[in-house]
Amino acid sequence: MPILFRLVPRRAITVPPAPNHSKMSSLYKALVAQHARQLRPVRCAYSTITQLHRYFEDVVLENNLNALVIEGLPLSARRNVRENARVRQLAQPGRRAFFFVRHGDALNELVGHEGGGAPLILRQAEDNRANEHFLVIADARFSALLTTVHETTNDAVGGDEVIWTFEPDVVYSALEYLMARVSAEHPYQATAFGSAVRTSMPKATSLQLTLSVTTKLAHLLQEQAGREIAVNRIATAIRESLELGVILQKTVDEVGTALKVLSCALRVEGETKEQALTYVYFNDGSEPDGLHRESITETLDLHCQRLRDRPEVIVQDGSDESGSSAERLPTAVVPLILHERAIGALQVTVADPARVWNENEILLLRTVADQVAVAVNHAELFAKIQQQALTDALTGCYNRRSFEMQLDKDLQMARRLHQPLSLLMLDLDRFKQLNDSVGHDAGDDALRRLTACFRQELRGVDSAARFGGDEFALILPQASAEGSLIVAERLRARIEQIEIPGYGNITASIGIATFPSQASARAELVSAADAALYSAKRAGRNRVCVFDTTSDALELIRSHRNPPADIAEHTM
Questions:
Q1: Which CATH class is domain 4-224?
Q2: What separation in angstroms does the CA of 174 have from each of 143, 267, 389?
Q3: How far from 18 is each of 21, 176, 196, 377, CA to CA, in Å?
Q4: Euclidean distance between CA atoms 430 and 541, whole angstroms
Q5: What angle do CA 337, 341, 346 make, to 5 degrees?
Q6: Residue 506: its pLDDT value, please?
Q7: Boundaries of CATH 3.30.870.10 in the chain?
Q8: Which of 104, 460, 503, 508 shows the smallest number of beta carbons within 10 Å?
């Protein structure tokens, strides 16, 4: 038995003058202006407002109220079968349903000649540009109002301001405004609309019905607050870190916690399958029975393959007949879109086999996916800038600044592990003559072919840097003087096979110095290798020389800084 409170209407409904649309173009603005003390706008995501709208409709449908239902809907050129069916439900016999829609809306096709299964469609005037979303319910024992003006460019979390109330006085004001609007815009429907309004005035309000909808509203707003917190935390992680791995792990953790899912997985594609980044969250921190990381990543692989060809949201709702296998659990997958192509996916799976995904949850996933795509873009730009700052544009080798940083790092490791480290200084022979005879383009080609030899002959732990001009420095960690000599000879022989069109084969001279036997610090090691390179030049070029601590190294260094003319004219 519902609880009823008697109300005495304060005034009869009369038709006021038609509203001036140039000054007051929406129900929302009219009510906020007239009832500023009673109405407090709340900022919500538009998908949340849509859900609120449905909760109000549910009161009518679930309790089979013979109510007056008036709705104003934002423009939508396409409406799905579920939306059309719900509109018809609200227009069942015993109810009076009116829908304000804009020109071009799909609901214009639902005209009122289908009997009790179709509402009366009232097309909004062309000079009323407000993209309204409102619902007014008037019944003998229940009254309610919800309204907002939807900004189509603000469809993210926290997008629009909405007001709602169960106060009869505010509902009366809304009905007066709408009656005036119908009289001005739809004079042929004014009599039917006015009659429906006058016969549907609430005489009492049901506390039971009010509590049922307000409980749902509180729960929905609580969920929205949790989603906003999750999105804000992810946004903070993106702002505070350029480490993509940190951002991706934070993302799956926050999404998994906000949606209370069984698992959340995130994939960012790389140039190869091995370079792809995959992060997984489990609701209790461990893999539940029947759901393993391998099965999740396999499912994610399949979804990513599908999204490459057709990037769209994949929603797999549950049903009471679903099994317990991971493949049949309710799953939602949202693509990560960067530069109009799918670069990965965000996938969530829940344990409840009857779970149906709602629009708010999908909106959260899409919002997060957009933020992750931005983070990936930032990480790629940062890596590109960092690469440009640390490498030589022509050859792709380290530049001199990054060479010094890398050598310091490798020397520190060599000291800690008590291991040798060798430095090779390499210089092309008669490089100036090559440039003068066949041009600088051929010289650039020779340098690129030279660095290709480095990639083929050196180990992954070795580093190559362009020291300046045609001079290169090669760092060989854990390499003794004997081992580095073998590498240098092999490299010299490989370079000797490079043929430049119009010029012929090129050659290189190489000097070697080893830490700690021949130098104990970076500057000493570079000077020693440089002196050995000068010795190779003086000895006839196209050869390898190891720094000799018994010779006059200082004199060799001075000679290299001011070399004789016969050597200087061919070194650069």
A1: alpha beta
A2: 11, 49, 64
A3: 9, 10, 19, 53
A4: 9
A5: 40
A6: 92
A7: 4-224
A8: 460
- Residues with Cβ within 8 Å of 492's Cβ and at least 6 positions away in sequence, in order, are 507, 508, 510, 542, 543, 544
- The CATH 3.30.450.40 portion of the chain extends over 241-317+327-386
Inter-helix orientation angle 207-240/244-259, to 10°: 170
With beta carbons less than 8 A apart as the criterion, state whether 296 and 264 touch.
Answer: no
- Calculate Rg over the CA atoms of the chain: 38
Instruction: Please check the confidence at residue 315 and state whether its pLDDT lies above 50.
Output: yes
Q: CATH 3.30.70.270 region(s) of the chain?
A: 400-571
CA count, 13 A, side-chain hemisphere, 238? 20
User: What backbone torsions phi and psi does residue 21 show, to the nearest 5 degrees?
Assistant: -70, -25
Number of Cβ atoms within 10 Å of the Cβ of 223 = 19
Output the CA–CA distances (angstroms, integers) from residue 9 to 96, 140, 481, in the order listed. 21, 12, 102
pLDDT tens sequence across 366-421: 888 888 888 888 777 777 776 677 778 888 888 888 888 899 999 999 999 999 99
pLDDT for position 202: 64
Taking residue 95's Cβ as centre, other Cβ atoms within 10 Å add up to: 21
Out of 3.90.1640.10, 3.30.200.20, 3.30.450.40, 3.40.50.1220, the CATH code matching 241-317+327-386 is: 3.30.450.40
Residues 237 and 247: beta-carbon distance below 8 Å = yes
Beta strands 68-72; 96-101: pairing state:
parallel
Give the amino acid at 339.
Answer: H
Q: What's phi and psi for 421, nearest 5 deg?
A: -150, 135
Evaluate whether 205 touches 183 at the Cβ level (below 8 Å).
no
Which tokens go with 428?
Answer: 């092309």
Q: How many CB atoms lie within 10 A of CB 131?
A: 18
The C-alpha angle with vertex 482 and arms to 476 and 484, in degrees rounded to 5, equals: 25
Element (H, E) at 498: none
pTM: 0.49
Three-state secondary structure along 357-388?
CCHHHHHHHHHHHHHHHHHHHHHHHHHHHHHH
Encoded amino acid at 332, one letter: A
Q: What one-letter code names the amino acid at 131?
A: N
Q: Return the CATH superfamily for domain 400-571.
A: Reverse transcriptase/Diguanylate cyclase domain (3.30.70.270)
* pLDDT score recorded for residue 123: 78
